Amino acid sequence: MKKRQVSLINWQDFSLKIFPMNSFRKSYLLRYIFPMLVLGFLFSCSLILPKSPQPPRNNTKTILFKCDSYINHGMLLPVDVIYVTADDNLKEVTKIGPNVWFDSKERESWPHKQTLNLRSGIEVRLKLNKPPETKYVVIFAPFFKTEDQEAQQVILPPDPEENKKEKEEVVWVGANSLYH
Q: Potential cystine with 179: which of 106, 111, 147, 172 (Cβ 3.0-4.6 Å)?
């Protein structure tokens, strides 16, 4: 029985025998040609691949609070404007609710919010100091002797992709609820 010998070809040696290179050609190839080929490939990939869409943002720049002639049984109404950057944070905030929010540890540690006090018969325009990645704006107002959470909060959702212009939202403050 004959043994069959298998010889493996070392392609590096084979290519050097066919295309002999001196050290100058190797250094030129490694320094200039190879990086240009890599950059050209990456550039062509960036033109072909689809661009990732921007996440939706809230473009509201100001909020106008219009108060009725008699709100919150004649007492000052504390209002928190909370800037939420992700869906998980929105669930976390709305789960707490306006009645518990003002005494919670989460409120003390929340990074982006503004607080103001409203009284009967006034209009207040609030310029929002929100981070650019804000997705939702949540407004909490704990009315005296009101347990309905929906009446004490307003959630301003992200704007549609085609609506990029800055805007002003109007929130009406009634006797014991918020309206948008």
A: 172
